[in-house]
Specification:
Blueprint: H1 4-21, H2 31-50, H3 55-69, H4 73-80, H5 85-140, H6 157-160, H7 163-187, H8 192-213, E1 222-230, H9 242-257, E2 266-269, H10 285-294, E3 297-304, E4 307-314, E5 320-323, H11 338-348, E6 364-366, E7 373-379, H12 386-396, E8 400-405, H13 415-423, H14 425-430, E9 434-438, E10 443-446, E11 452-455, E12 462-470, H15 481-499
Parallel strand pairs: 1-2, 2-3, 7-8, 8-9
Antiparallel strand pairs: 1-12, 3-4, 4-5, 6-7, 9-10, 10-11
Helix pairs in contact: 1-2, 1-3, 2-5, 2-7, 3-5, 4-5, 5-7, 5-15, 7-8
């Protein structure tokens, strides 16, 4: 009982450090501060665990940190449900509680490794245990909101470049491994050299990744003129004339830019939910003519039946249709087996979206003088999933990624920035630029070298044009085997702990 006030203060301090690691907006310029907090939190956590902080206080810290980061969730649930605010608050509480359980499991596994390793080997054991558990949870755990602890490193381009080798999940493992080592060494009274070995090792690995990034093989130079229309439509709006409204905005933007200018192709991007209220899975010669008479390629977010779609049209090519492969849990599709999903839909008045599938035809082909330029679209929350993007590239190939997002559900809150920050490493992982077209802001571009731009503010209408020049990069992180080998190596390193307990 005497420790309770001190433990409560420790939990609050941990929660604040947790929040600081994800304190976006991404355009704040606090990239180094976010990266430092992403290392500081696991270091503080494992220092507290080594000194005896109990699991209940750790869980409270994680819960409070999640409340601080996702404080906008109750309002979104209330609007999107729609639900009375007390029920929305209960739903948000369940979300915070569930996500906190995953972090707690990672923390307790790292504590187990720390204790088994004893005084001499404990920090190293904690590092391996925390890194392995974080990888396992991020890749294989169920998440309501799929996110990665490696995302804060995307705020600084040279730090982000290592994602080309290990992906955002690998960076998350590095941060938690180095943080666990640092915190455990500090708690055991290690000298400055021992305590600082973790952060210095992390910096060396990231610096080596930035250097090796320059040696990765690159494809031929590509150039593309891009126009993005951000209409600031109401989320879920279905009304006649949505396409005509978007064309008025698009034609004005194309005219002001003087595009298209052959031989450079022009790609027009509309966001998710830009055209709703009709079935765009059907053939339409008229839509192809809209792109053909303007001399552009056109990709836009729409729907058909119970599918969330991206459709593309270009002169001389077939219509492109790709349905969302991974609808967001609870927001778009109830999780679980079909019998449970149907039961939840019936009793909650929800209609789960149908899942699309990936094929060799899942990339949009734009004719160019160099041959087809392949564009692979990912719809809104799909961009949070590294494996979804990997699967799409493996099946269909791509020279460019697009993300079509409906962020209007979040109104003026920080959620659109959090989403942007969580997806920006997809560009570095794949070695391809990622164009983000949003319904209400912020649209932007994430480049394969780790640099990025976000434009405007939430709940604004705008039109953006840029000429994109790049060379596709063949990155190791495109392969799922990289993380599997890392997990196998960490697992082997922990085998002695399962057999022996070293001296305390």
């Amino acid at each position: 009982m005497k420790r309770a006030p001190g433990d409560l203060l420790s939990a609050i301090a941990l929660a604040l450090a947790f929040i600081l690691a994800f304190r976006f907006p991404a355009s704040s310029g606090l990239g180094y501060a976010e990266a430092a907090a992403a290392l500081l939190f696991p270091a503080m956590l494992f220092a507290a665990l080594a000194r005896g902080l109990r699991a209940g206080w750790v869980y409270l810290a994680l819960f409070l940190g999640l409340v601080g980061i996702f404080h906008w969730v109750p309002g979104t649930i209330a609007v999107k449900g729609p639900l009375p605010y007390p029920l929305a608050l209960l739903g948000a509480g369940l979300f915070y509680g569930w996500e906190a359980l995953g972090f707690l499991a990672v923390s307790l596994f790292g504590r187990w490794a720390l204790r088994r390793g004893g005084r001499r080997s404990g920090p190293w054991a904690a590092a391996c245990g925390a890194a392995l558990a974080m990888l396992a949870w991020e890749i294989h755990g169920f998440h309501v909101y799929a996110w990665s602890w490696g995302a804060p490193l995307g705020g600084v381009p040279w730090l982000a470049k290592s994602a080309a080798f290990v992906g955002s999940h690998g960076l998350a493992a590095l941060l938690w491994g180095c943080g666990a080592y640092t915190g455990a060494a500090f708690a055991e009274g290690g000298g400055p050299r021992r305590v600082l070995a973790g952060p210095l090792a992390l910096l060396l690995v990231l610096a080596a990744g930035a250097g090796l990034w320059r040696t990765l093989p690159r494809g031929p130079a590509r150039v593309l003129d891009v126009v993005m229309i951000q209409p600031d439509f109401e989320s879920g709006l279905r009304r006649p004339g949505m396409e005509q409204d978007m064309w008025l905005r698009s034609d004005a933007a194309l005219k002001s830019l003087g595009w298209p200018q052959p031989p450079v192709p022009t790609l027009l991007l509309w966001p998710e939910s830009s055209v709703l209220g009709r079935d765009d899975t059907q053939p339409s010669a008229r839509m192809r003519l809209e792109a053909e008479r303007r001399g552009i390629a056109w990709l836009f977010g729409t729907e058909g039946g119970n599918y969330n779609l991206v459709r593309g049209e270009v002169a001389g090519g077939p219509s492109f249709i790709q349905a969302k492969v991974e609808p967001m849990a609870f927001g778009e599709r109830m999780p679980g087996p079909p019998w449970l999903r149907h039961w939840l839909d019936r009793n909650l008045g929800f209609l789960s979206q149908s899942k699309g599938s990936l094929t060799a035809a899942s990339s949009f082909h734009i004719p160019t003088a160099q041959g087809p330029l392949l564009v692979h679209p990912v719809i809104c929350s799909e961009a949070l999933l590294s494996d979804r993007v990997q699967d799409g590239l493996r099946l269909a190939g791509a020279d460019l990624l697009t993300n079509h997002t409906n962020d209007g559900w979040f109104e003026r809150g920080p959620a659109t920035d959090l989403h942007a920050a969580q997806i920006r490493l997809r560009a570095v992982e794949t070695g391809l630029p990622l164009l983000r077209a949003t319904l209400t802001g912020k649209s932007g571009v994430f480049r394969e070298d780790g640099s990025w731009e976000l434009w405007g503010a939430p709940m604004t209408e705008a039109a953006y044009g840029l000429q994109l020049r790049w060379r596709p990069i063949a990155t190791p992180a495109r392969s799922p085997w990289v993380l599997r080998w890392i997990m196998a190596a960490l697992g082997l390193a922990l085998v002695p702990l399962a057999v022996f307990r070293f001296k305390p």
